[in-house]
Design the sequence.
């Protein structure tokens, strides 16, 4: 898995040794806004295991986000596998410690991840699943050249906006074709939904 560099951030792969710091982040209710609420250490361990599992299977996964200035882990940004309306999708997901909000860091990270998706991984499509009230996240998606695709209902949430971006302009992709196109770097197997 590549390391992505931006002017202020390093996006590197997660390792088991990140559990303590990640558990601290995921226990923070603000870090976990617009999700399932603060995580226990056990829930974070399961989350990290899932992330590491994608990585070992050669699938796109989340990156640990490190601030260059002081080498601190402040959150994550990267790829999350979702099943949306019976279709496997690859989401660009991000969460940052509230001390680092409002500095453009999430925009910087999300842009690097989007470029990596199309340039290096040759993904044909990525999405972002965003709660309608999450204005900061909607703005990041807009600045990532994403457009609202549709509304959907996900797990415990009310209708969510689904923002999508394809590698070369906007187009509609039939779900079965999309599933085939998502089979990258994995011996031709389709990406399974690991949720
Ligand atoms: C969403 C999140 C990652 C944004 O991080 P961030 O580093 O503050 O984002 P940025 O500084 O890059 O700002 C992104 C844009 O949102 C805007 N923004 C930030 N907070 C906002 C708010 N509360 N309301 C409206 N716009 C907001 C910023 O002004 C910026 O737009 P601009 O460049 O046009 O000014 C951060 O708030 C977070 O971790 N939230 C909790 C987890 C979460 O919601 N993740 C996304 C799930 S879909």
Sequence:
């Amino acid at each position: 898995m590549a390391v992505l560099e931006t002017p202020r951030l390093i996006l590197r792969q997660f390792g088991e040794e990140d559990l303590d710091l990640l558990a601290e982040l995921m226990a923070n209710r603000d870090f976990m806004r617009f999700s399932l609420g603060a995580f226990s250490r056990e829930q974070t361990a399961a989350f990290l295991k899932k992330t590491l599992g994608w990585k070992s299977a050669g699938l796109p996964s989340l990156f640990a986000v490190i601030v260059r200035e002081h080498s601190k882990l402040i959150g994550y940004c990267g790829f999350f596998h979702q099943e949306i309306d019976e279709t496997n999708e690859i989401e660009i997901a991000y969460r940052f410690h509230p001390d680092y909000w409002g500095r453009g860091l999430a925009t910087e990270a999300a842009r690097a991840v989007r470029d990596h998706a199309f340039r290096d991984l040759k993904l044909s499509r990525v999405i972002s699943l965003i709660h309608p009230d999450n204005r900061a996240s909607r703005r990041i998606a807009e600045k990532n050249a994403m457009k609202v695709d549709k509304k959907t209902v996900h797990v415990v949430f009310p209708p969510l906006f689904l923002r999508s971006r394809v590698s070369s302009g906007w187009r509609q992709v039939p779900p079965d074709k999309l599933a085939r196109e998502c089979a990258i770097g994995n011996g031709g197997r389709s990406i399974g939904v690991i949720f």
